[in-house]
User: Fold this.
Amino acid sequence: MNVGEHVLGVKVAKTYPPRDNTQLVRLEVVTSFTCSRCVRTKKARLVAIHNKRLLCNGCYGRLEASAPQEEQRSRQDEQAPAPHEEELAQVVVEELDSGLPYSVVNTGLTVEWKFYVRAKHLLHGTCPVPTAMADRAAPQEPLDLTFLRGRHRIKELDRQKGIRLDTGGAEPLLTGVGWQPFVLPGTRVSVRWDTWRQLRLSYTPLDTPVVFGGTVVRYVHDPRIMTRELAAFDARVDRVEELVLITLRELGYLDEKGRALLPRQALVWNTVERAQPERPPRKKIDGAIERLLSRGLLAWQGGSVNRAGMLHYPARRGERTVPLLCYAPVLREADREDLRHAEPEVAYSLAAHRVAGHLMRIGHLGKEASAEARAAYRDDHQRAGLAGPHELPRGFTYVREHERGF
Assistant:
């Protein structure tokens, strides 16, 4: 493969030395394709070609990592030069799990699976399902959902009817799901489908609720997803500092603790690119980074970049070491005050009942409250004679009192 040739109908901008039957190439523009190894739809500029099959950059890296150590050492002398300083502005970060089902068990009578809730599930009211269920269920038949919590003492939270199975997209989904207000991106859900109509969705509570980056978390979760998808909601600083933190958390390399890491060059470049419509000068971004460092909201860590521009943390042997700016979410046990102000963990009655007006978190979904919701909150807040500003808090919408149940 040479520069100027086409892959997926897009011109190749750069090629890397081939390894055995695999070659990594960089395309001129971001392109959508299906990786032949993980069978997931990817959008990227880096594509690996392995025996005429396409691999995403993450699978390419895992393929390289699985090579015998002796073979890897013999290749080190043949490696191309590491990226230059300017190339660090566009390092490649391996993508997170996309929220697809995992740990799927199909006994013939039941299908069980787990997944981590993503912002797109909350935004669109969907739930991913494995092909084992999609192949057996009748798409036109409505399904019933029961939401549960607990490990040993199971507690019913809610029931919902009329859920539909949609198999028309790239991945099968349940649609019409009403997620509870306290469910956050990153929450782990266990699903069991055992009567061909009834599904049970279960949340596993933590032994002790925690405050993760300013947000109360009650259930088992993936810290990496929370760091990435709660980024816009948690920021509480001036505009440029906020842009820097959001960029780092949404684009940086994430470890199992939820820490986000990125070279300074990449952080500055991406902050400028993402700041629409008014892009702040680089001097202001540099100043914001220095202020965040001085206040301890950012810190320096050491990582490495391989010849294909893939970022790794901690640093790997044989790769070029680079300093990384690190955001680490503050994690502590939740106290009474935290729980008092958190989303209420409501156990819904199955009979028809009134639901009091309440705030609902939407900032982590990239949504803003409507003018009607802001006006309703202002009206109800004033009518109740509550202290404090009557304006709807940032990152929330307002749901007025209504009836729910059967």
